[in-house]
Write a structure and sequence with these properties.
Layout: E1 2-4, E2 9-11, H1 33-36, E3 39-45, E4 48-54, E5 62-63, H2 65-70, E6 74-85, E7 92-105, E8 108-116, E9 124-126, H3 128-133, E10 136-139, E11 144-147, E12 150-152, H4 157-166, H5 172-178
Parallel strand pairs: 4-9, 5-8
Antiparallel strand pairs: 1-2, 3-4, 5-9, 6-7, 7-8, 10-11, 11-12
């Protein structure tokens, strides 16, 4: 971060002792669950319910390798690995595989491409690619996801947290079977 000085530009780092330190605990915002609530839902992918996070800051549509296996999605070996940069420095990985699967959400019923990524908590993340392609509206003010004029049923925060907490993400087959779905 550059800070202008009268005579020169100098670099000031957040950890530098010269940076003003605020001791007042009231300066830190209170993080309330209401403001951090996500938009997530169960959406069928190849007929298997996936726990999906809608993410307006994600420039890819992602699916976990475990869920690709469960829903028998078509796997694509990428000829050129694609870089994936998360929101923090140093959080880089490579995407080596893609998958195609049918997604059913409101009036949308199409085969869709996903990057196969080892994501946490959710089976799938639908980002700006999906939202733009199908004119999906993420309405954070009213806690809803719209496909055209149709509102998609979302998990309430308590239900989503409970669903996520109960799931064993490293045992996805067990989760599918416990939720009354079949894997053939």
């Amino acid at each position: 971060m550059a800070v202008a000085n009268e005579h020169r530009m100098c670099h000031t780092w957040i950890y530098d002792e010269k940076v003003q330190k605020i001791e007042d605990p009231a300066a830190q915002p209170r993080r309330v669950h209401e403001s951090q609530r996500t938009l997530c839902a169960e959406i069928p992918i190849n007929g298997i319910k996936a726990l999906v996070l809608f993410d307006s800051g994600c420039t890819t549509d992602s699916i976990t390798p475990e869920f690709v296996y469960l829903c028998k999605a078509g796997r694509i070996n990428l000829q050129e690995p694609v870089g994936l940069q998360l929101g923090t420095k140093g959080s880089r990985t490579k995407i080596n595989f893609g998958a195609q699967a049918e997604i059913v959400m409101g009036s949308v019923r199409n085969t869709h491409y996903f990057d196969v990524v080892d994501i946490d908590k959710y089976n799938t993340i639908l980002g700006t690619v999906f939202c733009r392609k199908y004119s999906i509206v993420l309405d954070f003010a009213n806690d809803r996801v719209l496909v055209g004029t149709q509102s998609i049923p979302l998990f309430k925060e308590e239900a989503a947290s409970s669903k996520i907490a109960k799931r064993s993400f490293r045992e996805p087959i067990k989760w599918v079977l416990e939720n009354g779905q079949t894997v053939q």
